[in-house]
């Protein structure tokens, strides 16, 4: 591969590997290796076919899940950010707030879901509830770091200008925390999708990707189950890329964007 | 050791009333392991309007502490500071000084122009006036062409010059500089020294300059206040009677050498004492 | 500074008390002020939950033990393979270019969504728990460790070269110790996730484990057990995190732990 330019190589190798993996799968390599029957582990072409046949329903379910995930993520991130802002304004006591949020984070999603089932009547409400709790901590921790991790002498400079706390917050801390906020958003969008799907397993929803997976597995429709996972992954990746694109425009000045 | 030679400079005769009066200032604090540190002990200094003075000494001598006390970023344990009759706090609240730190402290997310504009925005200066001043200061430091760039696109020395432009933009009465060039290489530092003198000659502000570099202090200043550590105290006031404007030639003159080595010798005593501690 | 440490603990304590008080207040409002019929299952009194736990703690502990132990095994295996992959990627640029995109993508696949599928493939309860916990741990550990290897500054590497250090020595004496904090950042993310994954598998039709208790309580109607199980699982998650954090303090005494951005990549 001497003449192939480096950037192309970066695509080529993983692509080759990926194709090889899919090929092995298609031709029954994993089935032979691990003793699976075709109906247990559908081959890629069958997954794609099933997905294509059921595209409208799959997309509809995808929309339900994604909207719940995004809504919950926005609420959870806002709460997390508010707590981080309070913790910055009142450093001595605010620290405890961050700990509380982190503790919420430790509650397994699978336990949150039944709790939300009790609190909210609709599947969508339950989903948003779970996603909110799951996304608070990541935003709080990252935002706090962004708001308080300032360049040395920055605060001294502000003090020399006799700047009020409010001015310091808006002109210094807020722009400074944007990169960290985007890091948190990227983490949260992934967690939000997972949380939304898991919530749908246990919720009273009759639509959504999680429900779809559960339903299809129950009916032993493995191909559909895999199809749904595929769509969920594609949706997750697409959302992540959207956030990354917004990040690129919003923090052009940051080292990570050069 | 006090050298009392008459002052002979090319700048106009100073206003006799001191601009900055430091009287018996002491600073004692507890360090991270609970020990008491005498950062400054009974320091008294008078700085005249339009003078360029340096606070010179090794680390631990309290020079930065003293600068911060003047800037009202620290409160002394005892003693007083008067700036044109006002307290440091009043001076700070009324934006009477511009300060330049060791690192440029530019906002990554603002262009150079907007960085220089920052204090003017906060002082609610009119937009047109802001533009005028920003352009003027950037031209003064020679960075007019880079107004639209971001900090990361400039070298360390250039970023520091932006810091100086920003400090001057508020039209302060005096300038405080805390080892602004210590993070730069020797060549850049010497060039910036000359630039700084050029700017100072044009603006005529009082400058208090902190450094640990003897040559730099001698090259830049009218007077050098030498401080020694453990405990931090004023150990000498040296008049620098080299003619202005100063240039590379000044650095090579015998008078320059004798001033620098004189100061250096006075520190040998300090180091010998330290060795025995 | 001992003073700061003490006041920090005090703050956390105050917050803990405040949260407990708020909870009790909420439960009180729900039950006795709003007369919510579902109050007992929405937000029961903490002391009630405590009583239930006290009454049932042997079975709760046993269930937790089953779930936790399998999660721990999966966690260990996943961490081991993740670490080895990171070493491989650091040694071979080809391996890195192949695996890197998949590493990124894998962090976006809803792994918990994969759980039922893996379960139908593997069939066996215990094996499923281990496989899923391993999968969930594998990628964060590989990503963080690789990040650690790559963060070694060039000067340190050059020093090693000046000592004519061979590859194994370079790794043993420089890269491995240097990357330990990064490894722990990944472990701290993966630990609670492994516990969650294991609980999820419980709920897919196992005979024992804390997830089963949750499930029975949900559909069987033993309401008090439900919240007791929830708190137990939360405790397991917190415990796994604290365990790793403590291990880090012991194994990495030379620096403060990396600021962990809770959840995936380290920025």
Structure in a nutshell:
Chain A is mainly α and 258 residues long. Chain A contains 11 helices and no strands.
Give the CATH H-level superfamily of the largest domain in chain B. P-loop containing nucleotide triphosphate hydrolases
Q: Kindly name the structural category of chain B.
A: alpha/beta
The shape of chain B, in one word, is globular
pLDDT < 50 stretches of chain A: none
The largest pleated sheet of chain B is described as: 6 strands, mixed
Q: Give the CATH topology of chain A.
A: MetI-like fold
Write down the overall mean pLDDT of chain B: 88
What is the H/E order of chain A? HHHHHHHHHHH
CATH architectural group of chain A: Orthogonal Bundle
| Separate helix tally of chain A | 11
Largest sheet of chain A: none
Total separate domains of chain B: 2
Helix content of chain A: over 70%
Biggest interface, chains and residue tallies: A-C, 67 and 57 residues
The CATH architecture of the largest domain in chain B can be named as 3-Layer(aba) Sandwich
List key phrases describing it.
heterotrimer; B: 277 residues; alpha/beta; Rossmann fold; 6-stranded mixed beta sheet; 3-stranded antiparallel beta sheet; 38% helix; 23% strand; globular; disordered N terminus; C: 267 residues; mainly alpha; MetI-like fold; 2 domains
SSE map:
The complex is a heterotrimer of chains A (258), B (277) and C (267).
Chain A: H1 6-26, H2 29-34, H3 44-53, H4 55-89, H5 91-106, H6 109-119, H7 123-148, H8 154-160, H9 165-202, H10 209-218, H11 222-250
Helix pairs in contact in A: 3-11, 4-5, 4-7, 4-9, 4-11, 5-7, 6-7, 6-9, 7-9, 9-10, 9-11, 10-11
Chain B: E1 18-30, E2 36-48, E3 52-56, H1 63-70, E4 78-83, H2 88-93, E5 97-100, H3 112-122, H4 127-140, H5 156-169, E6 174-178, H6 186-203, E7 206-211, H7 214-220, E8 223-228, E9 233-239, H8 248-252, H9 254-276
Helix pairs in contact in B: 3-4, 3-5, 4-5, 7-9
Chain C: H1 2-33, H2 39-42, H3 46-91, H4 93-106, H5 111-122, H6 125-150, H7 154-162, H8 167-202, H9 210-220, H10 223-251
């Amino acid at each position: 591969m001497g003449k192939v330019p480096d950037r192309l190589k970066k695509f080529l190798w993983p692509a080759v590997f990926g194709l090889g993996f899919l090929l092995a799968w298609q031709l029954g390599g994993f089935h032979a290796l691990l003793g699976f029957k075709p109906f247990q582990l559908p081959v890629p072409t069958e997954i794609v076919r099933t997905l294509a046949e059921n595209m409208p329903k799959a997309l509809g379910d995808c929309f339900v899940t994604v909207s719940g995930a995004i809504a919950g993520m926005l609420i959870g991130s806002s709460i997390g950010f508010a707590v981080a802002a309070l913790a910055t304004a009142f450093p001595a006591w605010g620290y405890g707030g961050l700990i509380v949020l982190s503790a919420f984070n430790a509650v397994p999603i699978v336990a949150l879901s039944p709790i939300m089932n009790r609190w909210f009547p609709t599947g969508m409400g339950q989903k948003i509830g779970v996603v909110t709790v799951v996304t608070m901590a990541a935003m709080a921790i990252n935002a706090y770091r962004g708001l308080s991790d300032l360049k040395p002498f920055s605060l001294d400079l502000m003090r020399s200008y006799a700047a009020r706390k409010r001015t310091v917050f808006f002109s210094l801390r807020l722009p400074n925390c944007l990169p960290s906020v985007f890091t948190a958003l990227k983490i949260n969008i992934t967690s939000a999708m997972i949380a939304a799907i898991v919530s749908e397993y246990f919720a009273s929803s009759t639509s959504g990707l999680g429900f779809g997976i559960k339903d299809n597995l129950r009916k032993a429709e493995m191909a559909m189950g895999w199809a749904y996972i595929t769509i969920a992954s594609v949706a997750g990746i697409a959302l992540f890329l959207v956030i990354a694109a917004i990040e690129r425009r919003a923090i052009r000045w940051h080292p990570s964007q050069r | 050791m006090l050298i009392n030679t008459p002052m002979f400079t090319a700048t106009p005769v100073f206003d006799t009333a001191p601009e900055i009066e430091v009287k018996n200032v002491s600073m004692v604090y507890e360090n991270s392991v609970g020990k008491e540190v005498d950062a400054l002990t009974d320091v008294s200094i008078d700085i005249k309007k339009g003078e360029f003075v340096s606070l010179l000494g090794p680390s631990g001598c309290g020079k930065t502490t003293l600068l911060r006390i003047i800037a009202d970023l620290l409160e002394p344990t005892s003693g007083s500071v008067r700036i044109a009759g006002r307290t440091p706090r009043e001076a700070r609240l009324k934006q009477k000084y511009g300060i330049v730190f060791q690192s440029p402290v530019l906002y990554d997310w603002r262009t150079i122009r907007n960085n220089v504009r920052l204090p003017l925005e906060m002082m609610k200066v009119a937009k047109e006036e802001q533009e005028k001043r920003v352009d003027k200061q950037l031209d003064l430091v020679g960075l007019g062409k880079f107004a639209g760039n971001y900090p990361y696109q400039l070298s360390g020395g250039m970023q520091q010059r932006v810091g100086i432009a920003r400090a001057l933009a508020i039209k302060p009465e005096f300038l405080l500089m805390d080892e602004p060039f210590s993070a730069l290489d020797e060549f850049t530092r010497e060039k910036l020294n000359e630039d700084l003198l050029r700017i100072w000659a044009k603006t005529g502000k009082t400058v208090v300059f902190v450094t640990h570099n003897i040559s730099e202090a001698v090259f830049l200043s009218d007077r050098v206040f030498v401080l020694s550590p453990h405990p931090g105290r004023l150990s000498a006031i040296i008049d620098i009677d080299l003619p202005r404007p100063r240039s590379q030639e000044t650095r090579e003159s015998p008078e320059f050498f004798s001033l620098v080595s004189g100061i250096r010798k006075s520190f040998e005593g300090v180091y010998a004492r330290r060795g025995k501690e | 500074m001992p003073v700061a440490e003490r006041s920090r603990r005090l703050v956390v304590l105050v917050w803990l008390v405040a949260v407990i008080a708020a909870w009790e207040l909420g439960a009180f409002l729900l039950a006795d002020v709003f007369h919510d019929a579902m109050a007992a299952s929405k937000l029961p009194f903490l002391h009630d939950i405590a009583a239930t736990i006290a009454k049932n703690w042997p079975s709760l502990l046993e269930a937790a033990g089953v779930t936790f132990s399998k999660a721990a095994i999966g966690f260990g295996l996943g961490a081991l393979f993740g670490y080895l992959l990171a070493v491989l990627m650091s040694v071979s640029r080809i391996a890195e270019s192949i695996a890197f995109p998949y590493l990124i993508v894998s962090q976006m696949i809803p792994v918990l969504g994969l759980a039922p599928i893996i379960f139908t493939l593997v069939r066996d309860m215990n094996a499923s728990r281990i496989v899923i916990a391993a999968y969930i741990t594998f990628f964060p550990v590989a990503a963080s460790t690789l990040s650690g290897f790559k963060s070694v500054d060039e000067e340190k590497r050059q020093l090693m070269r000046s000592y004519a250090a061979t590859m194994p020595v370079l790794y043993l004496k420089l890269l491995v110790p240097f990357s330990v904090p990064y490894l722990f950042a990944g472990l701290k993310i993966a630990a609670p996730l492994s516990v969650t994954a294991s609980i999820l598998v419980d709920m897919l039709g196992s005979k024992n484990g804390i997830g089963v208790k949750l499930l029975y309580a949900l559909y069987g109607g033993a309401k008090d057990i439900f919240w007791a199980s929830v708190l137990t699982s939360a405790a397991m998650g917190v415990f796994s995190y604290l365990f790793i954090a403590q291990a880090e303090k012991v194994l990495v005494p030379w620096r403060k732990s990396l600021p962990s951005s809770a959840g995936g990549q380290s920025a």
